[in-house]
Amino acid sequence: MKRLAFYSFLAVVLMFSASGFSLTVPKGNRPVKNIILMIGDGMGTSAVYAGYTLNHGHLNLERIRNIGFSKTYSTAYVTDSGAGGTAISTGNKTYNGAIGVDSTGKPAETILEWAEEYGKATGLVATCAITHATPASFISHQASRSDYELIALDFLKTDIDVFIGGGRNHFAKRKDGVDLTQKLKEKGYSLAYTMDELRNVKKGPVAALLDTVHPVKWLEGRGNMLTESVNEAIRLLSSDKDGFFMMVEGSQIDWGGHDNNINYLATEMVDFDKAVGAALDFAMKDGETLVVITADHDTGGLGLNGGSFETGEIKAGFTGTNHTGVMVPVFAFGPQSEMFSGFQENTDLFFKMMNAFGFEVKRK
Ligand SMILES: [Zn+2]
């Protein structure tokens, strides 16, 4: 059966099915095959514009037409990355520090886990330890974001196909003495410790633990790790005929904000935007991929008080060294991207992605 015809048939079947797909895609929209979710940690609108300035008035993000805002508050006015990630991954506003659990501490199913259940391939990519708050909130269920070794254990409870980032010590140099890299091998994973090793992996599953804890700053020689990781992850994940879900984090934009270091922040922003370009290039060719790019929160209360597109120079001011409560941008590209424009809760992003995939879920 031709694919379009199949999906119209499917839509009719689902409309009349007893289970009642109350939140499935509207008639006429067929489910998207793949979703690439990209989170610029701490990427408020001024971080985006700092990158735009440093990069001499150009960003890949400008290729996107459907743009909205996300309200990032958790159960507190100002969120952290654990609660911010969990809001997007599970649709729950929760307490700061939570990883994949609701405000009562109960584990909440993440979109990555939903995607696995529906037979899709899944992946996580980050420029920090893969056990850090944002990636962790898509795969782990822990009361506290600082329990890195428990979070690493949770990776083994899933069938994630590709994960790329730092955090090797949380798998291999643990207090309990268990070598989780051995357990991963027993489960059939290829282990990669360098980008070259990752490139040589023919097919998943693969765990690429490219640093002991966090990869270094872009300014200190991380190079093209993020964009290359995105390309390798897409290569491995897109071989699954059922499609894939992948979350990519530009982790260190946030750290530049915490440090009130505009050069750190803006270079991380430009690096993240390059990875955005790689995802958009794939989505444009593929035609069945939804790309959603957002932030979990703003960091530092960055203000841009002057600058030059010619030299890339920025005169920056910060209101503090922590996160702030302001709304952050949401950029969406590809089929069903219209859903993501306008003013929305960070938790809406979960429901909209579920909806785009055509997965059954009922809002509490
Ligand atoms: Zn932070």
Secondary-structure blueprint:
Elements: H1 3-16, E1 34-40, H2 45-54, E2 66-71, H3 81-90, H4 111-117, E3 121-129, H5 133-136, H6 148-156, E4 162-166, H7 168-172, H8 180-186, E5 190-192, H9 195-199, E6 206-209, H10 225-237, E7 244-250, H11 253-258, H12 262-286, E8 289-294, E9 298-299, E10 303-307, E11 314-317, E12 323-324, E13 328-333, E14 342-345, H13 346-357
Parallel strand pairs: 1-7, 1-8, 2-14, 3-4, 3-7, 4-6, 5-6
Antiparallel strand pairs: 2-13, 8-13, 9-12, 10-11
Features:
364 residues; alpha/beta; Alkaline Phosphatase, subunit A; 2 domains; ten-stranded mixed sheet; 14 strands; binds zinc ion
For the largest beta-sheet, the strand count, sense and barrel status come to: 10 strands, mixed
Number of strands: 14
State which percent range the strand residues make up: 15-25%
**Count of individual helical segments:** 13
Strand order of the largest sheet: 5-6-4-3-7-1-8-13-2-14
Radius of gyration: 19 Å
Number of domains: 2
End-to-end distance? 37 Å
- CATH architecture group name of the largest domain: 3-Layer(aba) Sandwich
